[in-house]
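Final report, Chapter 2: Outcomes

The project's central promise was a pipeline that accepts a single protein chain and returns its three-dimensional structure in a standardized token representation, suitable for archiving and comparison. That pipeline is now operational. To close this chapter, we reproduce one record exactly as it appears in the project archive, with the input sequence first and the structure output second.
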Amino acid sequence: MTDTMVNPAVRKKLFVAILLLGIFAAAAVIVQVAAQYLTSPGSGPGGETPAGLEVKSVFSSSDFIYGPQSWRPYQTRLDIADSSDPDRMWVLMFVPLNGTPYGGNPAMHQRGAVRVHYTFENLTGEAAFHVYGFRQLDGLWATNRQEEFGTSAYYVLGADSPGDAILPTALRQIPDNYTIRLSSALPAGTDGIDPSLITLYFTQRPGSGLDSLHITTDLTRKKGEVITTPLQDGTFYVTHTGGNPVRLLLLLVAVSPGQPDDFRLHLESEFVGETV
């Protein structure tokens, strides 16, 4: 059948259908771009602090307000370190970092990681670092994976065994609803978030929220790695490998109980953009 033999009414309907399909496709692209722009880090309340602006903080043993305990929050409790020693205890604190990593569409926002520099003074036992990120699109939290592919964490070995220092009297267990108090003020740009208490909500789907945030010392390995080091002064990165953008980033720091009075932890953090 030739084109001249097609019924004009059928041809008109076909033209209208193609036109509507094109309009629908264009609208879908516009909505996707707008959504990524509005929810990507730096575009609204709680967005990242501009690259190059640093936050410096110094913490003592009194800032570690949770514990002693062996676990950290997730949909199910995660071990802070090696699960082969169930009696191993830690004291914990949560600190907001300056900036949020972004691994999504580079047309919407600059890709990059959050660089964390730490310096320990008189650390005894061991320290552990893990990360938590508040997901903008659904209001849930993500954290670094500790099992299977993409496992990451950062551990620092102290120079001495834990001492006999008296634990702070204000220590407490993290409540079952995972409402935690921060040990440092929120950085600028996180208005709308309670500066004192934050509740960590996780999806109940097994394994969800473990695939986007990672800890690494090598930005070519964005899926992260497990680092154990004796270095009392060092640097690592928090990376994001796409999916739900992160609005707020928290660093969980855990140390062995019984730190001495002269224990100190110096932290610096900043967003580091990818170079083209």
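Archive annotation: The first strand starts at residue 55 and ends at 59.
This record, like all others produced under the grant, will remain available to the consortium after the project formally closes.
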